Amino acid sequence: MATTLDAQPIANPNRSKFILGGLLLLVAVVYLIVSSTIAGAQYFFTVDELMTRTDDVVGSPLRVSGAVIGETIDYDPDTLTLKFTVAHMPGDQALLDEEGGLAEALYTAVNDPDRTRMEVVYVGVKPDLLRHEAQAIMAGTMGEDGVFYADELLLKCPTRYEEAAPDQVSDN
Amino acid sequence: MLASLGYGALVITFLVSLYGVGAAIYGVTQNKASWVDSSRNAMLLTFPLLTISALSITLLLIQMDFQVEYVASVTSRSMPMYLRITALWGGQEGSLVFWAWLMAAFASAVTLRDWKRDREFLPWVVVVSLSTLAFFLILIIFFENPFVRLWQSSSGEIISAVWQPAGTLPFIPADGRGLNPLLRHPGMIIHPPLLYLGFVSFVVPFAFAIAALITGRTDDRWIRVTRRWTLWAWLFLSLGLVLGGRWAYDVLGWGGYWGWDPVEIAAFMPWLTGTAFLHSVMIQEKRGMFKHWNMFLIILTYDLVIFGTFLTRSGVLSSVHSFAQSAIGPLFFVFIVLTLTISLWLLVRRWAELRGEEQINSFFSREAFFLFNNLIFMAILVICFWGVVFPLVSEASGLIGQAIPALSNVFTGQKITVGPIFYERATGPLWAGLLVLMGIAPLSAWGASTAKTLGRKLWLPTIISFIPAVVIFFLGVSGAALLAFWLVSFVTAITLYEFWQGVGARVRTKGENVFAAFWALVGRDRRRYGGYTIHLGIVLMAVGIIGIEIFQTETQGTVPIGGEIALGDYLVRYDSLADFNTPDGRNVARASISVFRDGEYLTELNPRRDYYFESQQTMTIPGVRSSIEDDFYVLLVDWQPISTQSATFKIYHNPLVNWLWFGSVILIVGTFVAAWPEKDRAAIRENKHLRVQAPASAD
Questions:
Q1: Which residues in chain B are closer than 8 Å to A136, comparing Cβ atoms?
Q2: CB-facing half-sphere around the CA of B305: CA atoms within 13 A
Q3: Which of A71, B222, B393, B503 has the most CB within a 10 Å radius?
C-alpha cells in the first residue's frame, strides 16, 4: 500500500477484512452478553409467587421485595445475623399506585394479617434504613426450610412529604 | 411574593422560548434577518429570567419559607446556610429548575460567540436549544412546580397550589423535613451540578449538528465549532461520575464506589457515546471519514442525556438513586422518541452528502484503531443498555408467552434483573481491549500503516512495559490482575515514550533544555499531548479500580473495649466509645480505635454512627486511613449499651483505591491542556491550511 490514491483499487479485499473483523467483534459481544446475562440473572418475585413455588426455585439466585414488619427484626451483632419477616406487597408500579402509592401499600401490607409472610435471614451490617413499614428489596436464594437467605438488601422508606426517600444498598 | 415572582419568571421564560423557536423558524424560512436576531435575543433573555426564578427558590430556601412545599421538603431549621442553598438541587423540582438554568446559561453563552463565518447555523442552534429548554419548562411549570405553596381550608384540609384557593389561609409548617442526611456531603453538593453541566453542555454540539443537517453545510465546520464544548461537556460528565463514586464510597458505607445501579449507568451511557464521539470526530477532521457516524453519535449522546435525566427523575426503575417518582415519565418518553425520530430523519435526508472522502486502507492505520475504539465503546453501551432494560424486557416478553402457549415456558413474563456480575463479566474484556488500543493507537499513522512500521515503533516501549509486570509477578500477582497491570504499564510506557521522543527531538534540534522543550512541545500540539495526559489519568484510575475490584479484603467482628480485630497486616484495637447529642439535631455514637500495621501504631480512627432526629434516619460514617498504597476503611456497625461495652466493626482493606481519585485530577489537567483556547487564531488557520495540503501526514 503505497499512497492513499493507489490504495483505492484494492479497497475491496480490505473491506471484507473489516467486515470480518466487525463480525468477530459482534459475535464476541453477543457471546459476552448472553453468557453474562445467564451468569448474572436474578428472577424477580413477589412474596406470594415465591411462597407458592418454593420447590422450583430453591437454590437459584432471585430477587424479592416485601414490606418489613418492625417487631420481627432481630439482630445479633456478635454473628452479624439479621432476621426479620416481610409481608407480601405488589410487585409493579401500577398495582402500587392502585393501593395508593408506596407508603399506603406498605402500611396495608404490614397491617393485613392475611398477607403471605416470609422469614428472611441476612448476614452482614444491619442497614440504617431497616425499620417498620420499609420496603425491603432482597437478592439471594430460597432455602429448603422456606426461609429466604439474602446476600443483598436494599431498602426504601417512603416518608410523609416525599413519595420516596433515597434507598440504601447493603452489599456482602 | 417571592414564590409568585419565581413562578412568573418561569412562565415568561416558557413563552419567550416558544417565541424564540417561532421567530427563528419564521426568520430563516422568510429570509428575514431581523427575526433571527430577535430569536437570538429571546435566547439571551431566558438566562436572566431563569436566574430570577432560581434565585427566588434559593432565597426561599435561605429564609426557610416553609409555606412553599419544596422548601419544607428539603430544608429544616437546623440546616446550615450552605446546605440550604445547595438544597436547590436536593429535590426533584429544584433540580429541574437548576437544569433549565444551566441550559439557558450555556445556550446564551453560545449565542454570544462570533457567528460571522457560520451565520446560517444560528437560527437552528437557537431552535434546538430553546425547544429543549421549553420541554424542561413544561415539566417544571405543569408537573414539578417548586413554587407550589401549602394552604389550609376552613375544614383543616391542607391543599397545595401555586395561588391561594378561595376560602383558604396560608399554611406554614413549624419546621421542614430537612435534606436527606445522605445528601449532606461535599461530594453530593458538587456531584449533581457537575453531572448536569455535563448533560446540558452536550446539547450544544447536538444543536450544531442538527443545524448542519438542516442547512446542508455538512463539512466539518460544526465539529470545529463545538470541539471545545464537547471536551468541557465530557470533563464535567467525567467529574460528575467520579464525584458520585466518591460520595458512595464516603457515605453509603459499603466499601465500594460503583454498584452498576441503573441510575449510575444512565449517567454513564452518554459518557460512553460522548467519549466515542470525541475520538471519532478526529477522523473526520483529519481524513473526512465517518461523517454519518459522528452525526449518529452526537444524536445518540443527546438522547441518552435526556434518557439519563429521565431515569434519575421518573423512578421507572427501582434503584438506589430514584429519589423521586412522578408522572413525568411518559413525557420524557415522548420527547425522546420525537427528537430521535426527527434527528435521524434529518440524517437520512443528508445521507449522500455525508459520504466519506476516503476509505480505510489499512488495519494498522490510526483511523482503523479509532474505528475499533468506537466499536468497543458502542459494545459497552449496548451491554449497559441491555442490563438496564432487561428487567422490563423480560417482564414484557410474557406477552409472547401468553399469545403463543407453546412458548409460555420460555417467555414466562417473570421479571429478571441482572446484577453487577453481569456488567463486570461482560464489559471486563472490552475494557482490556480499550487499554490495548489506547496503547497502540498513538504510535500508528494516519492513512497507510503496516504491521511492520507499527512494530518498529512498538517494540521498545513494549519491552519496557514488561519490567513492572515482572516485578508485580514476583510479588505474587497472577491471572487477570497480572494481565490488567501489564496493560496499564503498556499504555503508560508508550504514552511516556511519546512525550520522551518529542522532548528528545526538540532538545537535539533546537538545543532547548528538557523543561523548555517539554513546555514548547505540549504548547505546540496541546490537543495531542492533552489527550495523552488524559490517557495517563485514565490509566491511573484503572490502577485504582484494579486494586479495589480484585484485591479488596474485608472482615468483621464484635469486640469488647481493648479487644482486637486483625485483617492482613493490619490490627485494630477498640479503645472507647462516645455517645452524645449535637446542636444540629443528631445523636452521635463515635468509636475510637487504634490502627496498627505489623505491630506498629499508625493512627487513631473514629468511625461513627449519626442518628438524625428529625428524619429518624441513621448514617454510617467510616473512619478511613488513606495512603498512596491503600485505604483502611472501618465502619462502626453496632454497639452495646454501657454495661457490656462491646462494639461491632466491619473493616475493609482497599488497596490502591486512591489512584482512582488521583487519576481523575490528572484527567482534569489533561482536559484543560487540550481545551484551553488557542492564543493565536491566525496560527491555527495557517495550520489548517497546511493540513489540507498534507492530509496523509502522520498527524
A1: none
A2: 29
A3: B222
